[in-house]
Write a structure and sequence with these properties.
The chain is mostly helical and about 280 residues long. The protein has nine helices and two strands, in the order αααααααααββ. A hairpin with a 5-residue loop joins strand 1 and strand 2 (about 270-275). The protein starts with a helix and ends in a 7-residue tail after the last strand.
């Protein structure tokens, strides 16, 4: 063998990498075996910690309007969804009722669609306002209430991924909330029209007004109380001939009435009984 060959062989890389140095073999660690009693204890500890969290959340809501309104919205959702699922299953034999809980984006979406078709109730009454609709603030409150319940009870469904995701991250929920904001100006305009129509429809008829005004001047105890009848008749006729905005109403007193002269044109004028509301726009 020539010296050149020996040099070439020494400088050329080896065909196979040299064997790596041997390392000591690590024995696999023993798997921790949890006894049934330990599993039960861990489960109870997890449940107790979430109960403490829910109590803290309830204390934070004390004294706030949401402490009452949120549970009402959740109960309303449950009643409607259970009834809707029962109806759906009765109409289609291939479907079975789906429980209202856990709260998911799909369930909340169909409930929000129902809410957008509902009419408003008169304040302090169970009578509906015909032609009205619920606004963006109501839709937002429904989402807030169900979102809070959804996140507060997510620990009860550890294997359900959807219960651990915020409702507002879902495109369906965002679509309903965005649509309610977009249609709010038209809804307000329509509600004002409905309110004006309701104001004129709830007034006395002409015959009823004449009967009531005469009663004020005939049914009182003695001549010394004539001024009481005149006062009552004036207040009745004034209220029947005056329209007030619902948000600007206030109690009118006798001193709020005063006679005034109103010019019709450059030569004619009329005498009127005017009202003055210092806390409103009347």
């Amino acid at each position: 063998m020539s010296s050149t060959d020996s040099v070439r062989r020494a400088s050329s890389p080896p065909c196979h990498p040299p064997p790596s140095p041997k390392r000591p073999c690590m024995e696999p660690s023993n798997t921790l075996v949890v006894s049934p009693h330990m599993q039960h204890s861990l489960s109870m500890l997890e449940q107790e910690s979430h109960e403490l969290r829910l109590r803290i959340g309830e204390k934070e809501l004390e004294g706030k309007g949401t402490a009452k309104s949120y549970p009402q919205q959740v109960q309303k959702y449950q009643l409607w969804f259970d009834a809707d699922q029962a109806r759906t299953a009765a109409e289609d034999s291939t479907r079975v009722p789906i429980p209202a809980f856990p709260v998911t984006a799909a369930k909340v979406s169909v409930f929000l669609h129902h809410e957008t078709t509902c009419e408003k109730y008169k304040r302090g009454s169970k009578d509906l306002i015909q032609g009205s609709s619920l606004g963006k603030s109501h839709i937002a409150q429904v989402i807030n209430a169900l979102e809070k319940y959804h996140l507060n009870h997510a620990h009860s469904y550890p294997c359900d991924h959807e219960t651990h995701v915020s409702l507002r991250r879902d495109s369906r929920i965002r679509a309903f909330e965005s649509a309610s904001k977009h249609h709010e100006p038209k809804r307000v305009e329509k509600s004002q029209t409905v309110k004006a129509a309701g104001t004129s429809s709830d007034t006395y008829t002409k015959a009823e007004l004449i009967c009531c005004s005469l009663w004020c001047l005939t049914d009182f105890s003695g001549p010394q109380y004539i001024f009481v009848g005149i006062r009552d008749r004036a207040m009745l006729l004034v209220s029947a001939a005056t329209a007030f905005c619902g948000e600007g109403c206030r109690m009118l007193e006798w001193l709020d009435l005063f006679p005034a002269t109103v010019p019709l044109d450059q030569t004619n004028e009329i005498q009127v009984l005017a009202t003055c509301s210092w806390q409103g726009d009347t």
